[in-house]
């Protein structure tokens, strides 16, 4: 198994900008393996879109490679640019800001900035996980999914568990909530993860419109209305700034990446191209923060 994985990596490394296309015989010769072995590897890679066949026994990198590369670029852009944007947001609001992503089942917090009056939720420390339906960020990321997929992923993530008496516990209520999120463009958490703590979140999107993260601000429940009225436009502005950073990183990577797939693919092929590790969860606890530090993973 390990030998096969190594060989697969060696095959993919052959494809460069200077030589984007390879035949099976050429691959076998370059790697010093039997042609039948090379054919088996490239056929397997083509079956999962890591390679694409361009002619008789000839291949180029597939569009799935570009999708995976794009996700790496997104993560890099968030790591590089989110801390400073979040620090400014925390200073402006005096509240705690979070950046979270979706692993397909649960929300994962990846960065946090503490405002001078900010509430610190231990479950929201960088690297921790939370069921999506109990958080403003989770609702924002769920709202873009087809309903059948929402149900499937929530169930695989443990179901509609209640963290507080205010948590959503029925799919009917969740569907209504996600419809509201989609209509107004932001999500709310009214003491659904921790009693006494509320918050709002907006999506951070890729250039194609797909949400890749959620930016949120958490407050004591009595400050929720003021947060929406005074700071929601600023939260949206910071999310747009992060989106620009992602778009710039993607454009830069496409320009500099020596493995960039050639531009002569058909429109149909181009259309086809159109996580973070989750550590163990910790028990939630709420304390008050007094600085403006950022924690990232």
How would you sum up this structure, described in words?
The protein has 297 residues and is of the alpha+beta class. Helices cover 45% and strands 20% of the residues. It is built from nine helices and twelve strands. Strands 4, 5, 7, 8, 9, 10 and 12 form a seven-stranded antiparallel β-sheet that branches. A three-stranded antiparallel β-sheet has the order 1-3-2. Strands 6-11 form a two-stranded antiparallel sheet. A hairpin with a 5-residue loop joins β9 and β10. α2 packs across α3, α4 packs antiparallel against α8 and α4 crosses α9. It starts with a helix and ends with a strand.
Quick tags:
elongated; alpha+beta; 297 residues; 7-stranded antiparallel β-sheet; 3-stranded antiparallel β-sheet; disordered C terminus
Protein structure class: alpha+beta
What fraction strand? 15-25%
Question: What's the helical proportion of residues?
Answer: 40-55%
Please tell me the overall pLDDT: 82
What is the gist of this entry?
This protein has 297 residues and is an alpha+beta fold. Helix content is 45%, strand content 20%.
How do the helices and strands line up, and which of them pair or pack?
Elements: H1 2-13, E1 22-23, H2 24-31, H3 35-47, E2 51-55, E3 58-61, H4 63-93, E4 96-102, E5 107-113, E6 119-121, E7 129-130, H5 136-142, H6 147-156, H7 171-184, E8 187-190, E9 197-205, E10 211-220, H8 224-256, H9 267-273, E11 286-288, E12 294-296
Antiparallel strand pairs: 1-3, 2-3, 4-5, 4-10, 5-7, 5-12, 6-11, 8-9, 9-10
Helix pairs in contact: 1-3, 2-3, 4-8, 4-9
